[in-house]
Amino acid sequence: MNKRERVIAAIEKKPVDHVPASFSLHFPKDAWKGQAGVDAHISFMEQTDCDILKVMNENLVPLVGEMNGPEDWNQVPAHTKASPFIADQLELTKQVLAANQEEVFSLATIHGITASTIHPIEARYGYVPVREMLCEHLRADEKPVLAAMDRIADALCELIVESAALGVDGIYYASLGGEHHFFTDEEFARWIEPYDLRML
To answer: How do residues 138-193 score in pLDDT, each as one tens digit?
Structure first.
């Protein structure tokens, strides 16, 4: 039983020779892309002997300008699979899968709608402040913010489709938004859940 067979058997509740195991970590910045990124993934798999190869994703929705109010979300552009952050991630995935000679179960890392919506401004404002800002702007005027989230979700759906076409076995969906101190249950159901479901 190879690693991929083991994971699939476990998912299907069939007997396995042992419980499949995996974990992952963020590689150093100089190993986020290109050959260094491929080498980091392969070295990690060789050292850990994990059953699941999780292709990390540091190719984030790109930065945009200042956000002083909900209307500033209009500056978040539409993206396609040709956009550099998507093209770079797809190339990394392709190369990592090609370099891995073992039959492992592979996952593409996709950042959920909440994480991907804050990525364009996170470096400017900080991880927690930008999440609070997203909540504030949605509550003040949801229309331009949701329009930006819609464009981001469309791009992420392209990334998912193209990742599947490369041959990954599944998606590691890195979601945020369910924390009780940011969105209420009602807000989550209105603003976050529809996009998460669309991508899933």
So the answer is: 999 999 999 999 999 999 999 999 999 999 999 999 998 888 889 999 999 999 99
pLDDT digits (tens, 9 = 90+) for 96-123: 999 987 899 999 999 999 999 999 988 8
CB proximity list for 10: less than 8 A, separation 6 or greater: 16, 19, 20
Report which of 160, 166, 191 is spatially closest to residue 177, judged by C-alpha positions.
191
In eight-state DSSP terms, residue 60 is P
Domain covering 3-199, topology: TIM Barrel (3.20.20)
pTM greater than the 0.90 cutoff: yes
What are the structure tokens assigned to 96, written together? 């990592």
Tokens matching residue 65: 């300008």
- Cα–Cα dist 175/165, whole Å: 22
Asked if 67 contacts 137 with a C-beta cutoff of 8 angstroms, the reply is yes
Report DSSP letters for 110-130, one per residue: EE-HHHHHHHHHHHHH-HHHH
Instruction: Please state, in angstroms and rounded to a whole number, the distance separating the CA atoms of residues 36 and 14.
Output: 37
Kind and range of the H or E run holding 172: strand 170-174
Every domain of the chain and the residues it spans: 3-199
Across the chain, the runs of DSSP E, i.e. the strands, are: 52-55, 105-111, 170-174
